[in-house]
Design goal:
Layout: E1 4-10, H1 14-25, E2 34-40, E3 56-60, H2 66-75, E4 81-86, E5 90-91, H3 95-105, E6 111-119, H4 125-128, E7 137-141, H5 142-147, H6 150-153, E8 162-165, H7 166-175, H8 183-194, E9 197-209, H9 221-241, H10 245-264, H11 268-271, H12 274-285, H13 290-303, H14 307-317
Parallel strand pairs: 1-2, 1-4, 2-3, 6-9
Antiparallel strand pairs: 4-8, 5-9, 6-8, 7-9
Helix pairs in contact: 8-10, 9-10, 10-12, 10-13, 13-14
Length: 319
Protein backbone atom coordinates (compact mmCIF):
# COMPACT_ATOMS: atom_id res chain seq x y z
CA UNK A 1 0.00 0.00 0.00
CA UNK A 2 1.45 3.42 -0.93
CA UNK A 3 1.98 6.01 1.78
CA UNK A 4 0.80 8.96 -0.35
CA UNK A 5 -2.05 9.26 -2.84
CA UNK A 6 -1.56 12.25 -5.15
CA UNK A 7 -4.96 13.51 -6.32
CA UNK A 8 -4.52 15.56 -9.49
CA UNK A 9 -7.74 17.36 -10.47
CA UNK A 10 -8.22 18.92 -13.88
CA UNK A 11 -10.80 20.85 -15.88
CA UNK A 12 -10.21 21.24 -19.62
CA UNK A 13 -6.48 22.03 -19.45
CA UNK A 14 -4.76 19.00 -21.02
CA UNK A 15 -1.51 20.88 -21.68
CA UNK A 16 -1.14 21.58 -17.96
CA UNK A 17 -2.00 18.00 -16.99
CA UNK A 18 0.88 16.66 -19.05
CA UNK A 19 3.33 19.03 -17.36
CA UNK A 20 1.98 18.11 -13.92
CA UNK A 21 2.21 14.41 -14.72
CA UNK A 22 5.79 14.86 -15.91
CA UNK A 23 6.68 16.42 -12.56
CA UNK A 24 5.18 13.38 -10.80
CA UNK A 25 7.05 10.98 -13.08
CA UNK A 26 10.28 12.78 -12.12
CA UNK A 27 9.83 12.12 -8.40
CA UNK A 28 12.93 10.67 -6.70
CA UNK A 29 10.76 8.65 -4.29
CA UNK A 30 10.24 4.96 -4.82
CA UNK A 31 7.25 4.00 -6.93
CA UNK A 32 5.95 2.03 -3.94
CA UNK A 33 5.69 5.20 -1.86
CA UNK A 34 2.93 6.89 -3.85
CA UNK A 35 0.09 6.48 -6.32
CA UNK A 36 -1.47 8.98 -8.71
CA UNK A 37 -5.19 9.57 -9.23
CA UNK A 38 -6.20 11.93 -12.03
CA UNK A 39 -9.78 13.11 -11.63
CA UNK A 40 -11.16 14.73 -14.77
CA UNK A 41 -14.47 15.81 -16.31
CA UNK A 42 -13.22 15.55 -19.91
CA UNK A 43 -11.38 13.11 -22.14
CA UNK A 44 -7.63 13.39 -21.52
CA UNK A 45 -6.69 11.39 -24.59
CA UNK A 46 -3.47 9.41 -24.55
CA UNK A 47 -1.25 10.09 -21.54
CA UNK A 48 2.29 8.74 -21.74
CA UNK A 49 3.60 7.64 -18.34
CA UNK A 50 6.79 5.60 -18.35
CA UNK A 51 7.16 4.67 -14.69
CA UNK A 52 5.07 1.51 -14.73
CA UNK A 53 5.84 0.73 -11.08
CA UNK A 54 3.72 3.72 -10.01
CA UNK A 55 -0.01 3.01 -9.93
CA UNK A 56 -1.88 5.52 -12.10
CA UNK A 57 -5.68 5.75 -11.95
CA UNK A 58 -7.81 7.99 -14.16
CA UNK A 59 -11.26 8.76 -12.76
CA UNK A 60 -13.84 10.33 -15.06
CA UNK A 61 -16.60 12.32 -13.31
CA UNK A 62 -19.54 14.26 -14.70
CA UNK A 63 -19.32 17.16 -12.22
CA UNK A 64 -17.07 20.12 -12.98
CA UNK A 65 -16.91 21.40 -9.40
CA UNK A 66 -13.66 20.77 -7.56
CA UNK A 67 -15.38 19.47 -4.44
CA UNK A 68 -16.87 16.45 -6.22
CA UNK A 69 -13.55 15.65 -7.87
CA UNK A 70 -11.89 15.64 -4.48
CA UNK A 71 -14.59 13.31 -3.19
CA UNK A 72 -14.04 10.87 -6.07
CA UNK A 73 -10.27 10.96 -5.61
CA UNK A 74 -10.33 10.51 -1.83
CA UNK A 75 -12.89 7.68 -1.93
CA UNK A 76 -10.83 5.79 -4.54
CA UNK A 77 -7.45 6.38 -2.91
CA UNK A 78 -5.48 3.73 -1.04
CA UNK A 79 -2.67 5.79 0.52
CA UNK A 80 -2.51 6.77 4.17
CA UNK A 81 -2.11 10.43 3.14
CA UNK A 82 -3.71 12.60 0.46
CA UNK A 83 -1.51 15.06 -1.42
CA UNK A 84 -3.62 17.47 -3.45
CA UNK A 85 -2.43 18.83 -6.79
CA UNK A 86 -3.99 21.42 -9.09
CA UNK A 87 -3.48 20.67 -12.77
CA UNK A 88 -1.60 23.94 -13.38
CA UNK A 89 0.94 23.38 -10.57
CA UNK A 90 4.08 21.26 -10.42
CA UNK A 91 5.87 19.25 -7.74
CA UNK A 92 9.58 19.52 -7.02
CA UNK A 93 11.22 16.16 -7.93
CA UNK A 94 12.03 15.52 -4.26
CA UNK A 95 8.65 16.44 -2.79
CA UNK A 96 7.31 12.90 -2.20
CA UNK A 97 10.70 11.82 -0.88
CA UNK A 98 10.55 14.68 1.62
CA UNK A 99 6.99 13.81 2.66
CA UNK A 100 7.92 10.19 3.29
CA UNK A 101 10.85 11.29 5.44
CA UNK A 102 8.89 13.83 7.52
CA UNK A 103 5.95 11.50 8.12
CA UNK A 104 8.36 8.73 9.07
CA UNK A 105 9.92 10.97 11.71
CA UNK A 106 6.52 12.07 13.08
CA UNK A 107 4.09 9.20 12.35
CA UNK A 108 1.20 10.95 14.18
CA UNK A 109 1.25 13.76 11.60
CA UNK A 110 -2.17 14.79 10.29
CA UNK A 111 -1.05 17.50 7.84
CA UNK A 112 2.15 18.61 6.14
CA UNK A 113 2.25 22.06 4.52
CA UNK A 114 5.28 22.94 2.41
CA UNK A 115 6.54 26.17 0.89
CA UNK A 116 5.89 27.14 -2.74
CA UNK A 117 7.63 28.99 -5.53
CA UNK A 118 5.73 31.12 -8.07
CA UNK A 119 6.29 30.72 -11.80
CA UNK A 120 4.61 31.79 -15.03
CA UNK A 121 5.51 29.07 -17.53
CA UNK A 122 7.50 25.87 -17.88
CA UNK A 123 10.63 27.70 -19.05
CA UNK A 124 10.69 30.09 -16.11
CA UNK A 125 14.26 30.38 -14.81
CA UNK A 126 13.06 29.82 -11.25
CA UNK A 127 11.92 26.36 -12.30
CA UNK A 128 14.96 25.30 -14.29
CA UNK A 129 17.42 26.58 -11.68
CA UNK A 130 15.60 25.50 -8.52
CA UNK A 131 17.37 22.72 -6.61
CA UNK A 132 14.53 21.92 -4.19
CA UNK A 133 16.72 22.26 -1.11
CA UNK A 134 15.29 20.96 2.14
CA UNK A 135 14.88 23.65 4.81
CA UNK A 136 13.69 23.60 8.42
CA UNK A 137 10.39 21.95 9.32
CA UNK A 138 8.36 22.70 12.46
CA UNK A 139 5.93 20.37 14.20
CA UNK A 140 2.95 21.73 16.15
CA UNK A 141 0.85 19.79 18.64
CA UNK A 142 -2.93 20.16 18.80
CA UNK A 143 -2.63 22.12 22.05
CA UNK A 144 -0.49 24.72 20.26
CA UNK A 145 -3.17 25.17 17.61
CA UNK A 146 -5.34 26.54 20.41
CA UNK A 147 -2.80 28.51 22.41
CA UNK A 148 -0.67 30.44 19.92
CA UNK A 149 -1.24 32.63 16.88
CA UNK A 150 -0.40 29.81 14.54
CA UNK A 151 -1.77 31.56 11.46
CA UNK A 152 0.67 34.43 11.95
CA UNK A 153 3.60 32.02 11.88
CA UNK A 154 2.70 30.04 8.80
CA UNK A 155 3.54 31.36 5.32
CA UNK A 156 0.67 31.29 2.83
CA UNK A 157 -0.15 28.05 1.06
CA UNK A 158 -2.14 26.70 -1.82
CA UNK A 159 -3.92 23.41 -2.42
CA UNK A 160 -0.86 21.80 -4.04
CA UNK A 161 1.16 22.54 -0.89
CA UNK A 162 -1.07 20.45 1.41
CA UNK A 163 -0.80 16.78 2.32
CA UNK A 164 -3.34 15.49 4.84
CA UNK A 165 -4.06 12.20 6.57
CA UNK A 166 -6.73 10.23 4.74
CA UNK A 167 -8.89 9.93 7.88
CA UNK A 168 -8.99 13.74 8.15
CA UNK A 169 -9.99 13.96 4.48
CA UNK A 170 -12.84 11.48 5.05
CA UNK A 171 -14.03 13.56 8.00
CA UNK A 172 -14.01 16.64 5.77
CA UNK A 173 -16.12 14.87 3.16
CA UNK A 174 -18.68 13.98 5.82
CA UNK A 175 -19.13 17.63 6.80
CA UNK A 176 -20.77 18.85 3.61
CA UNK A 177 -21.67 18.45 -0.03
CA UNK A 178 -22.69 22.11 -0.29
CA UNK A 179 -19.30 23.79 -0.58
CA UNK A 180 -18.90 25.71 -3.86
CA UNK A 181 -15.97 28.06 -3.27
CA UNK A 182 -12.80 28.29 -1.18
CA UNK A 183 -12.08 24.56 -1.32
CA UNK A 184 -8.34 25.04 -0.68
CA UNK A 185 -8.86 26.92 2.61
CA UNK A 186 -11.57 24.45 3.62
CA UNK A 187 -9.09 21.57 3.71
CA UNK A 188 -6.54 23.66 5.53
CA UNK A 189 -9.09 24.84 8.11
CA UNK A 190 -10.43 21.28 8.51
CA UNK A 191 -6.93 20.17 9.49
CA UNK A 192 -6.56 23.07 11.93
CA UNK A 193 -9.83 21.94 13.51
CA UNK A 194 -9.18 18.17 13.59
CA UNK A 195 -5.41 17.56 13.69
CA UNK A 196 -3.19 16.25 16.48
CA UNK A 197 0.11 17.19 14.83
CA UNK A 198 0.87 19.51 11.91
CA UNK A 199 4.22 19.92 10.18
CA UNK A 200 5.11 23.20 8.48
CA UNK A 201 7.97 22.60 6.05
CA UNK A 202 9.68 25.74 4.76
CA UNK A 203 11.13 23.86 1.77
CA UNK A 204 9.81 25.15 -1.59
CA UNK A 205 8.49 21.86 -2.90
CA UNK A 206 5.52 23.13 -4.92
CA UNK A 207 5.62 25.29 -8.04
CA UNK A 208 2.54 27.52 -8.15
CA UNK A 209 1.63 28.83 -11.60
CA UNK A 210 0.39 32.39 -11.90
CA UNK A 211 -1.75 33.12 -14.94
CA UNK A 212 -4.67 35.25 -16.05
CA UNK A 213 -7.26 32.54 -15.42
CA UNK A 214 -7.54 33.17 -11.67
CA UNK A 215 -10.41 35.19 -10.22
CA UNK A 216 -8.09 37.58 -8.38
CA UNK A 217 -6.44 38.61 -11.66
CA UNK A 218 -9.66 38.89 -13.65
CA UNK A 219 -10.73 42.13 -15.36
CA UNK A 220 -14.35 41.03 -15.13
CA UNK A 221 -15.73 42.87 -12.12
CA UNK A 222 -18.99 40.92 -12.09
CA UNK A 223 -17.07 37.65 -12.10
CA UNK A 224 -15.10 38.79 -9.06
CA UNK A 225 -18.27 39.99 -7.32
CA UNK A 226 -20.07 36.69 -7.94
CA UNK A 227 -17.11 34.75 -6.59
CA UNK A 228 -16.84 37.06 -3.56
CA UNK A 229 -20.52 36.50 -2.68
CA UNK A 230 -20.10 32.72 -2.81
CA UNK A 231 -16.81 32.88 -0.90
CA UNK A 232 -18.37 34.93 1.91
CA UNK A 233 -21.25 32.43 2.13
CA UNK A 234 -18.76 29.54 2.23
CA UNK A 235 -16.98 31.07 5.20
CA UNK A 236 -20.33 31.63 6.95
CA UNK A 237 -20.79 27.88 6.67
CA UNK A 238 -17.28 27.12 7.94
CA UNK A 239 -17.71 29.39 10.96
CA UNK A 240 -20.75 27.29 11.92
CA UNK A 241 -19.16 23.84 11.65
CA UNK A 242 -15.67 24.35 13.11
CA UNK A 243 -14.74 24.76 16.77
CA UNK A 244 -11.00 25.16 17.30
CA UNK A 245 -9.57 28.62 17.82
CA UNK A 246 -7.00 28.51 14.99
CA UNK A 247 -9.63 27.24 12.53
CA UNK A 248 -12.15 29.93 13.43
CA UNK A 249 -9.49 32.63 13.40
CA UNK A 250 -8.40 31.76 9.87
CA UNK A 251 -11.95 31.35 8.55
CA UNK A 252 -12.89 34.75 9.98
CA UNK A 253 -9.77 36.38 8.56
CA UNK A 254 -10.35 35.02 5.06
CA UNK A 255 -14.03 35.94 5.08
CA UNK A 256 -13.25 39.51 6.06
CA UNK A 257 -10.62 39.73 3.32
CA UNK A 258 -13.31 38.82 0.78
CA UNK A 259 -15.64 41.36 2.34
CA UNK A 260 -12.92 43.98 2.00
CA UNK A 261 -12.29 43.02 -1.62
CA UNK A 262 -15.96 43.11 -2.58
CA UNK A 263 -16.53 46.45 -0.89
CA UNK A 264 -13.42 47.92 -2.52
CA UNK A 265 -14.71 47.22 -6.02
CA UNK A 266 -18.34 48.17 -5.28
CA UNK A 267 -20.06 44.80 -5.51
CA UNK A 268 -23.84 45.24 -5.36
CA UNK A 269 -24.43 42.57 -2.72
CA UNK A 270 -22.07 44.27 -0.29
CA UNK A 271 -23.45 47.76 -0.95
CA UNK A 272 -26.86 46.60 0.26
CA UNK A 273 -25.40 45.43 3.59
CA UNK A 274 -22.54 47.88 4.10
CA UNK A 275 -23.33 48.72 7.73
CA UNK A 276 -23.39 45.07 8.76
CA UNK A 277 -20.21 44.39 6.86
CA UNK A 278 -18.43 47.32 8.50
CA UNK A 279 -19.49 46.07 11.94
CA UNK A 280 -18.23 42.61 11.02
CA UNK A 281 -14.92 44.05 9.90
CA UNK A 282 -14.56 45.98 13.17
CA UNK A 283 -15.26 42.80 15.13
CA UNK A 284 -12.63 40.99 13.09
CA UNK A 285 -9.83 43.55 13.59
CA UNK A 286 -10.11 43.30 17.38
CA UNK A 287 -8.41 39.90 17.28
CA UNK A 288 -5.86 40.36 14.47
CA UNK A 289 -2.35 41.74 14.19
CA UNK A 290 -1.84 44.95 12.22
CA UNK A 291 -0.34 43.29 9.16
CA UNK A 292 -3.43 41.09 8.75
CA UNK A 293 -5.93 43.93 8.92
CA UNK A 294 -4.03 46.39 6.73
CA UNK A 295 -5.21 45.15 3.32
CA UNK A 296 -8.98 44.90 3.92
CA UNK A 297 -9.08 48.14 5.94
CA UNK A 298 -7.06 50.00 3.32
CA UNK A 299 -9.28 48.77 0.49
CA UNK A 300 -12.41 49.59 2.49
CA UNK A 301 -11.11 53.13 3.02
CA UNK A 302 -10.45 53.54 -0.70
CA UNK A 303 -13.87 52.21 -1.63
CA UNK A 304 -15.54 55.30 -0.19
CA UNK A 305 -13.68 57.49 -2.70
CA UNK A 306 -13.18 55.62 -5.95
CA UNK A 307 -14.31 52.14 -6.87
CA UNK A 308 -12.37 52.20 -10.12
CA UNK A 309 -9.14 53.22 -8.44
CA UNK A 310 -9.53 50.75 -5.59
CA UNK A 311 -10.35 47.96 -8.06
CA UNK A 312 -7.02 48.48 -9.80
CA UNK A 313 -5.28 48.34 -6.41
CA UNK A 314 -7.27 45.24 -5.48
CA UNK A 315 -5.70 43.39 -8.42
CA UNK A 316 -2.25 44.39 -7.18
CA UNK A 317 -2.84 43.40 -3.56
CA UNK A 318 -4.57 40.09 -4.30
CA UNK A 319 -2.89 38.91 -7.50
Amino acid sequence: MPLVSVILTTHDRPQYVREALNSLESQTASGNDFEILIVTDYDLGELEFKRKEIQLKILRVSETQLWYKHRAGIENSSGSYISFMDDDDLFCPRKIERLVSLIGEVPETDMVVNGKLFFYNITDKNISGHQCSFLDAFTFESSELMNRKLNSFVPWYNLSSMTIRREIAIQGLQLTDLLIREIDPFWYITCLDRSRKIIYDQSELTFYRRHSGGVSRSDNRQKVCNYAKEAIESYDFMLRIFNQRAALQLASMLQEEWIGKSMAIGCAQTEANKIGLILGLLHYVRFQSFRYILKPVFLLFLSFFSYNFSYSLYKIFYK
